[in-house]
Amino acid sequence: MTDFSTSADTLVVPCPAKINLFLHILGRLPNGYHQLQTVFQLLDYGDTLTVRQRQDSQLTLSPDLADVDNKDNLVLRAAIALRRFAGYQGGADLYLEKRLPIGGGIGGGSSDAASTLLALNQLWQLNLSLDTLASIGQQLGADVPVFVHGATAWAEGTGEKLTPLSIPSKWYLVLRPNCFVSTGEIFSHQQLTRQDAPIKIAAFLEGGTGNSCQPLVRKLYPEVDKALIWLDKFSPAMLTGTGSCVFASFDNEDAARAVLAQRPEGTEGFVARGVDLSPAHTALGIA
Ligand SMILES: C[C@@](CO)(OP(=O)(O)O)[C@H](O)COP(=O)(O)OP(=O)(O)OC[C@H]1O[C@@H](n2ccc(N)nc2=O)[C@H](O)[C@@H]1O
Ligand SMILES: Nc1ncnc2c1ncn2[C@@H]1O[C@H](COP(=O)(O)OP(=O)(O)O)[C@@H](O)[C@H]1O
């Protein structure tokens, strides 16, 4: 068993979750991806990644995730992509403490990948810029760049055109219905609405925006529909990303926790605070 106790050659990095405070789909790009407008709100809750220098060139990842093969894990894929890009010869032991539900629209895999890039860039002293790390990350997933740049942001394009945004801090309850929604399935669905008109940041701040995937996802997944109806009784509820998680905001932690404690059987969830800056950046001392 690998010993991951903290030492000079070891970094421990949070991998925060995100929620989409709104999500509009403006159209389809020639490569099949969708042109979006969204706000990525970072949360102070997520997975934790530990990286440790090895004296040889091996890359190891532990423990195995129940639903993802190690070779497909975005942590290992990010490490391999970074090493290839930088022409670096060394290795590392990677340990991922997974807390975030998989396939929930809260960006867990993308955040794990981004924290891997940020941490190994420091551990291996590669000195690559955030822009370079973001473009390596974008090949792995559309959500990786926002986590690399590490700020709550207004996003356009496929999520890579980012404008940092300061949102008044709120507490969020994120509820995960008992189902998994594939992002690819929703984006390739015939009935997805893809014709939102572009809006300005001011229009989002004035309110009244929503998630354009929500009508389709709640129709295809009754568990999501039920979760939205239940949470909406306490505070206006919305789908994040393509789901399956739904969320609502609360003025304080106690109010959010009181609702979480009553959650319907079969659902899971967590309470987290919205943050402007990524806890990964704070941990690594990135300005
Ligand atoms: C739409 C969002 C909003 O946050 O949904 P969630 O994944 O968070 O639910 C994300 O940007 C998703 O990011 P991510 O989950 O990294 O997507 P990727 O792995 O790059 O893409 C998965 C699949 O979704 C489709 N896809 C994804 C993003 C996008 N802008 N247009 C698309 O059409 C593509 O078919 C792609 O094959
Ligand atoms: N470290 C990881 N954590 C979560 N999912 C991962 C990871 N590595 C690869 N994946 C794959 O990425 C897909 C998307 O996972 P995730 O990021 O949790 O969801 P979403 O994109 O809905 O927020 C999953 O289907 C999973 O197989």
TrEMBL record:
EC number(s) stated in the UniProt entry for this protein: 2.7.1.148
Positions of the GHMP kinase C-terminal domain: 208-262
Entry-linked Pfam families: GHMP_kinases_C, GHMP_kinases_N
Keyword Kinase: yes
Pathway participation: Isoprenoid biosynthesis; isopentenyl diphosphate biosynthesis via DXP pathway; isopentenyl diphosphate from 1-deoxy-D-xylulose 5-phosphate: step 3/6
Record field: catalytic activity: 4-CDP-2-C-methyl-D-erythritol + ATP = 4-CDP-2-C-methyl-D-erythritol 2-phosphate + ADP + H(+)
Stretches assigned to the GHMP kinase N-terminal domain: 73-150
Keywords carried by this UniProt record: ATP-binding, Isoprene biosynthesis, Kinase, Nucleotide-binding, Transferase
Keyword DNA repair: no
Gene3D superfamilies: 3.30.230.10, GHMP kinase, C-terminal domain
GO biological process, one term: terpenoid biosynthetic process
GO MF annotations, alphabetized: 4-(cytidine 5'-diphospho)-2-C-methyl-D-erythritol kinase activity; ATP binding
Amino-acid positions noted as binding ATP in the UniProt annotation, renumbered to this chain: P101, I102, G103, G104, G105, I106, G107, G108, G109, S110, S111
Active-site residues from the entry: K18, D143
EC top class named in words: transferase
HAMAP family, sorted: IspE (MF_00061)
Function (record text): Catalyzes the phosphorylation of the position 2 hydroxy group of 4-diphosphocytidyl-2C-methyl-D-erythritol.
Family: Belongs to the GHMP kinase family. IspE subfamily.
Protein name, per record: 4-diphosphocytidyl-2-C-methyl-D-erythritol kinase
Annotated source species: Spongiibacter nanhainus
